[in-house]
Amino acid sequence: MPDPFPREPRAARLPALRAPFAGIVARPDPFIDLAAACACIAAEADPASTPRVLADELDAIADRVRATLPQELRPCARRDSGIRTPYELNAILDALHEVLYVEMGLRGAARDAWEPRHAYLGDVLRLGRGLPIALGVIELEVGWQLGLPLFGIGLPGHFILGGPDGRLIDPYDRGRTLSEDDCAHVMRQALGRPVAFRRSMLRPATRREIIARILGNLRGIYLSRREWAPALATLELLVILDPRDPALRRDRALLYGRCGRFTDAVRGLDRYLEEMPEAPDRDEVRIARGIFGGRRN
Are residues 84 and 172 both part of a single domain? Predict the structure, then answer.
């Protein structure tokens, strides 16, 4: 008997724009090329966005930072350079911030005016404005090229970076150094309510978590604008990233319905109900399934 719920398609059977993304995120987490994944995400809206184009832009920024350093520090500002001294680390980090946030003028986009372009790294570089995580990924990628031991931190409602000697950095605020009290403040601003800071919140984010957060931000922006087709494209990428999450496939099925793909919507909701018979939202899902089932195409 054929499987009524076939597995997610392999990369070779995915649309041309998504196969590269699937290949990138299939790697073990430390080997995921974060910038290339971000370029694939942007390619959903702009096919001219490619990993090579973005890599060249980030390379140029790293070269620009090296050029501002004293001659004796330039050999240190390389990937795998073995930077060790606090002086070297802090001098290169300060030079990076000077280039990104003073010379290039990168800033956080106003939260009440976020749009998809604020999540796409190439657009952020051109606009000079971006979401916290987009600015963070730009600093991460350039910083890694310069040999800096930076990592992402996904605070509730806000994305920051960890740096040398426990330094906490806010790319959304021009690379400002944060205290733990500052972290509580930025979370409160982002969420609109007080949030108790815990040191466990400073856990380094994995590359998959960073990609998922970028896609989650994009999905939220598109849904708030009632742009169903690009929201669906974003969910397709989330499903590729985590094909085992039934909630993502449920949400994708609901968006199939919003986009008029009623047969796909019914198939996806049937699969969700089969996999999650005791789901707390099963009654709402059955109602949606009934609506879409009456309009199958």
Answer: yes
Which band of pLDDT confidence, cut at 50, 70 and 90, is reported for residue 83?
Answer: confident
217 lies in a domain? no
CA distance linking residue 260 with residue 180, whole number of Å: 48
Q: What are phi and psi of 130, to 5 degrees?
A: -160, 170
Residues 6+ apart with CB under 8 A from 277: none
56, 188: one domain: yes
pLDDT per position as a tens digit, 36-73:
999 999 998 888 888 999 999 999 999 999 999 999 99
Give residue 251's domain range: 244-297
Q: 279 in helix, strand or coil? A: coil
Q: How far apart are CA 207 and CA 256, in angstroms?
A: 28
Q: Are 156 and 264 part of one and the same domain? A: no
User: Average pLDDT, stretch 173-200?
Assistant: 94
Q: Tell me, yes or no, whether 141 and 279 share the same domain.
A: no
Mean pLDDT of the chain: 92
